[in-house]
Amino acid sequence: MSAIIERANGQTHGKVPKVGRPRANPRQLERPPEEEILVEAARLFTSKGFSATSTREIAEAAGLRQPSLFHYYPKKERILETLLRRVAEWTLDFAEQLDRVDAPASAKLYRLLYFDVHSACASPHPVHAILLLPEARPPAFPAYWVSDRRLTELLRDLVARAISEGDLRATDVALTARSLRSLAASTATWATDCEGRSPEAIAGHVVGKELRALLEDPDRLDSLRQQALALKI
Amino acid sequence: MSAIIERANGQTHGKVPKVGRPRANPRQLERPPEEEILVEAARLFTSKGFSATSTREIAEAAGLRQPSLFHYYPKKERILETLLRRVAEWTLDFAEQLDRVDAPASAKLYRLLYFDVHSACASPHPVHAILLLPEARPPAFPAYWVSDRRLTELLRDLVARAISEGDLRATDVALTARSLRSLAASTATWATDCEGRSPEAIAGHVVGKELRALLEDPDRLDSLRQQALALKI
DNA sequence: ATTATCTATAGATCTATAGATAATGC
DNA sequence: ATTATCTATAGATCTATAGATAATGC
Q1: Do B181 and A190 touch (CB under 8 A)?
Q2: pLDDT category, B47, cuts 50, 70, 90?
Q3: Which residue has the higher pLDDT, A177 or B10?
Q4: Do the Cβ atoms of B120 and B185 come closer than 8 Å?
Q5: Mind listing the pLDDT tens digit for each residue in A83-136?
Q6: Which residues of chain B have a CB within 8 Å of the CB of A177?
Q7: What's the CA gap between A119 and A116, in Å, rounded?
């Protein structure tokens, strides 16, 4: 999870505040407070839900008193908004890098799905599950849903191109894209139950199943997988 | 949705109360109040979330004042508990009938998945999405999770038998069962976005994709589908 | 002077209970 | 007498604001 949430802040460590009144419960900080808040909020939102998580719980988990939270996020909703943005950017950034690579659409499709599902499984807490919170549904957080639509369209284009390149079977492209888009979030909801399986194993299984179903020649799955994972991003 | 929620109450219509103080806002009732409450609660829980839905909203939607709700459900949680039980029973009952039919495991697997996903898509509101509410996660509602485990084990057995019968490819059976179990709920989250597609089309697409991926011979999908839908339940 | 925090609290909920009330049933 | 509803409200939240305070920085 941390990786996804912190992506935009690789360099910001050490930004731990020196000025300001000391905390009531001092502790060693590894991240700036606004990042600590995001990490704890993500954990609480996915396990208890957005509305069922109080700002007090988030604050105490981040080592602060409840009103101090509002110094960093002026509304509770802004925390969820920030998390949604980070999750969307995490995948969108990868998708944009992938776009610049020259490779068959089927390989790119595999690689993008694998990246998305693997991220969802590898997070210690299933951050991607925040995408399924009823409180995050449209029309709330329109900026997130713009990114989501972009990603769905990207998947649709990859599927359509892979079909015209002869690698995938003809199928309902829009429906396929919509269901592929939900793959990472839905895998995140159960991946933590599967003890003993690595994120790589789960993502490989899930994405492999999708592509085997879509491939014109299912026996090509193994070579497609190798080709996809060999792409230099 | 109504079908799933009301399954246990086919005969109970007309149980509209004649005794008791009249309502402040009288209206024509089609269902007994406890059923009206379930239908409205299901709609509100899936669209706004459990904690974000107040007992006042549910009550007013059902034509009652807020405290009157507690005549039927002594705690707000009991409403969600009842919904979870109905959704679980809906699929479990079908699975038990299916169990008594003599047919190849692959056909039964297709039929069970189709039933589950089709129910999820056919509901005017995605009731199955309540299974994804963070508030419904274990360890809350242990009775529901017992049913859920039963269903996952049933899927696992069907997959294992279909493999030993030679219809499905060898694969990680537990992982496959777990991901198949999440199919209906996850489809419910996006099926309503797909205007112009019938529940049959969506369920056929989604379940077809799963089975094509699992089949030893993908070309057998069409005949498997016919065989599955022809089963007399 | 600026900043990050604190304490105190206003104001708006929200769930659940207590007890009254207005029907039907016997 | 029983029942389903109502009104009124207690008690426990919860979000967000106001304003004080205890550090560092200049």
Answers
A1: yes
A2: very high
A3: A177
A4: yes
A5: 999 999 999 999 999 999 999 999 999 999 999 999 999 987 789 999 999 999
A6: none
A7: 5
- Among A3-7, B4-8, B148-152, B181-185, whose mean pLDDT is lowest? B4-8
Whether residue B102 sits in one domain with residue B198: yes
User: Which of A151, A176, A205 is the best mutation test for B, with the most CBs of B within 10 A?
Assistant: A205
From the CA of A182, how many Å to the nearest CA of chain B?
7
pTM of the model: 0.94
Q: How far apart are CA A62 and CA A68, in angstroms?
A: 10
Contacts of residue A173, Cβ cutoff 8 Å, sequence gap at least 6: A156, A159, A160, A163
Residues A31 and A136 grouped into a single domain:
no
Clarify whether residues B42 and B19 are in a common domain.
yes
Domain that holds residue A194: 84-229
Q: Are residues A97 and A194 in the same domain?
A: yes
Minimal Cα distance from B138: which residue of A? A47
Q: CA(B13)–C1'(D9) in Å?
A: 35
A23 touches A63 (CB < 8 A)? yes
Q: What tokens were used for A132?
A: 């399924």
Per the CB < 8 Å rule, is B132 touching A189? yes
Q: Work out the pLDDT band at B10, boundaries 50, 70, 90.
A: very low
Size of interface A-B (CB pairs under 8 A): 112
pLDDT tier for residue B1 given thresholds of 50, 70 and 90: low
Choose among B205, B210, B214: nearest Cβ to A175. Answer: B205
Task: Look at residues A54, A76, A98 and tell me which one is the last residue of a structural domain.
Answer: A76
Six-digit token string for A114: 């694998």
Interface test with chain B among A44, A46, A51, by most B beta carbons within 10 Å: A51
The number of folded domains in chain B is 2
A150 and A212 in a common domain: yes
Q: Are residues A66 and A118 in the same domain?
A: no
Structure tokens at A100: 């610049």
Q: Kindly tell me if the per-residue pLDDT of B103 is higher than 70.
A: yes
Question: Angle formed by the axes of helices B199-214 and B183-191, to 10°?
Answer: 140
